[in-house]
């Protein structure tokens, strides 16, 4: 599992945000487009791409994309 690929999959969930914004240190909840619906999309993407089920609490406790990546990586 690569961080770069995870960031690409993460970014694909957003329709209006520029791809260049997405980096390991991006504070995703501070993005204008972030919403509870997007959180559900991220949960579904992680389940589909990585066969890992994360909880809403894990997203709430994450600050950056890399935080989420580390949760998923540790669950594989």
From TrEMBL:
InterPro entries in UniProt: ACP-like_sf
Q: Per its record, how is this protein called by name?
A: Carrier domain-containing protein
Task: Identify the species of origin.
Answer: Bacteroides oleiciplenus YIT 12058
């Amino acid at each position: 599992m690569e961080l770069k690929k995870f960031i690409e999959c993460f970014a694909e969930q957003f329709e209006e945000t520029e791809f260049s914004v997405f980096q390991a240190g991006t504070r995703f909840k501070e993005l204008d487009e972030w919403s509870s619906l997007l959180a559900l999309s991220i949960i579904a993407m992680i389940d589909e791409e990585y066969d890992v089920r994360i909880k809403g609490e894990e997203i709430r406790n994450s600050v950056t994309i890399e935080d989420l990546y580390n949760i998923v990586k540790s669950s594989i």
